[in-house]
Design brief:
Number of helices: 10
GO molecular function, one term: FMN adenylyltransferase activity
Catalytic activity: FMN + ATP + H(+) = FAD + diphosphate; riboflavin + ATP = FMN + ADP + H(+)
Enzyme class: transferase
EC number: 2.7.1.26, 2.7.7.2
Number of domains: 2
Helix content: 25-40%
Family: Belongs to the ribF family.
Oligomer: single chain
Largest sheet: 6 strands, parallel
Length: 314
């Protein structure tokens, strides 16, 4: 998948670009609703013997449009989003920088530059996609802006139990520890990448060595607590348990969250390595224990429950 990072105005020449079928949207989470839009574009591209593309935006519009400094955390940071789109067999990715200049474009100017100007011959979007200044353009008026240069498909909402699948609902599930419910909407386990960094080595000292992970600051973490996870490393997948929190048993002053993973039946040095963590089930809240022995007993109990959980999944 070739990736192009664009700003307004971009410098790509239409005549140098292949004719493509493209999906368009922010696609945070690349959930099952987003996947339907993207897969519709990929299938249409194959039918037309064209390349497939995805047009997305970064950062989130709220970073630009809301007053004051905004920092948005994403269900799929841009790295994870690219990984997902690669798996969906997308040929080209256009990442458009969302800035004030872009937000002020009229719907027609947006279409002229980022659809017609990118040689999009068929555009696929969700039924509620909007574009141009203050979202004045939408799928109901798209025909007015095509200039006869492209056709388009509006994909209906995807629902589960009569409720629309949305990034907002997934965020709500993650914030309350409803990991399995979030994963149903995602259509896969939440997956976040992290690099192993040196920690305080307490896990190793108590018999449960952990990989301390440095995740992207843009990554939206689930609720603090203990989780059943799978760890992907060098084309191998391992089961394990992860903790998100501040380690209150050892320190009360800490406020920043750490992410630590104990990989079952694995003891090799992982410092500096990148791991991909699949989050499968929330088990319990983070607790402050009266002593180390009480903490060890609880971790041992966590391991039994999580191993049993994965055993029942197989």
């Amino acid at each position: 998948m070739r990736t192009f990072e664009l700003t307004h105005p971009h410098s790509l020449m239409t005549e140098d670009l292949p004719s493509v079928v493209s999906a368009i949207g922010f696609f945070d989470g690349v959930h099952r609703g987003h996947q339907k839009v993207i897969q519709t574009a990929v299938t249409e591209a194959k039918n037309r013997n064209m390349e497939s593309a995805v047009i997305t935006f970064h950062p989130h519009p709220s970073v630009v449009l809301k007053k004051g400094t905004q920092h948005v955390q994403y269900i799929t940071p841009i790295r994870e989003k690219k990984e997902m789109l690669q798996k969906l067999n997308v040929d080209r990715l256009y990442v458009i920088e969302f800035n004030k200049e872009l937000s002020s474009l009229s719907p027609q100017r947006f279409i002229d530059q980022f659809i017609i100007g990118l040689n999009i011959k068929h555009l696929v979007a969700g039924f509620d996609f909007s574009y141009g200044h203050k979202g004045q353009g939408n799928m109901d008026v798209m025909e007015e802006h095509t200039r006869g240069e492209f056709t388009y498909t509006a994909v209906d909402k995807v629902t589960i139990d009569d409720e629309k699948i949305s990034s907002t609902k997934i965020r709500e599930f993650l914030s309350t520890g409803k990991m399995q419910e979030a994963n149903v909407l995602l259509g896969r386990p939440l997956n976040l990448a992290g690099v192993v960094i040196r920690g305080d080595q307490r896990g190793k000292a108590i018999g449960y060595p952990t990989a301390n992970l440095q995740l992207s600051p843009d990554a939206l973490l689930p609720k603090s607590g203990v989780y059943a996870v799978k760890v992907q490393y060098k084309n191998e997948t391992y089961e394990g348990m992860a903790s998100i929190g501040t380690n209150p048993t050892f320190t009360e002053e800490r406020t920043d969250l750490s992410v630590e993973v104990n990989i079952f039946d694995y003891n090799n040095d992982l410092y500096g390595e990148e791991l991909f963590i699949e989050w499968h089930k929330y088990f319990r809240e983070e607790k402050k224990f009266d002593g180390v022995s009480e903490l060890i007993d609880e971790i041992a109990n966590d391991e039994i429950k999580i191993r049993r959980f994965f055993s029942n999944q197989n």
